[in-house]
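Re: the 146-residue chain
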Amino acid sequence: MLLEGGQGLDGEVYAPATGPYGGPGRLIDRLNDHTEDFMPLSTAGGEVHLVNKARILAVEVAADQEEPEEIDALGSRQVEVEVTVLGGLTLSGQLWYAMPPGQRRTLDFLNASPVFFPLLDQEKTTLVRRMSVVSVRERDAGSTRT
């Protein structure tokens, strides 16, 4: 977990048992839950930090621990991007999203995304707080499913 000011915390954060749509809960569901401002993080040394979610820049998890929602819709996009967050850290990965016709640009996705959105690569998923993003640069034109 990367916090404002550059502090990093390693540990475990628990996802809710059930997600907002009835399926298994995911960490991103907890991060996007507007009913709680703080969440606990347990370190390997047994310490518990109550972390203010509004001060989290990004949370990195193994790709197999945070499966994204299935997106297999007409007009879905997969876009390679570089995301720069507060403090100058640049994260690279893929945005994968589906948006309504006429709103399928990366700009549209970023403006409509929840508090945290997933940035995917083969080894990890980085859950990025939208308000921590300074800039996003597409690395290629992306692909559109038809």
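The domain at 77-144 is CATH 2.30.30.100 (SH3 type barrels.).
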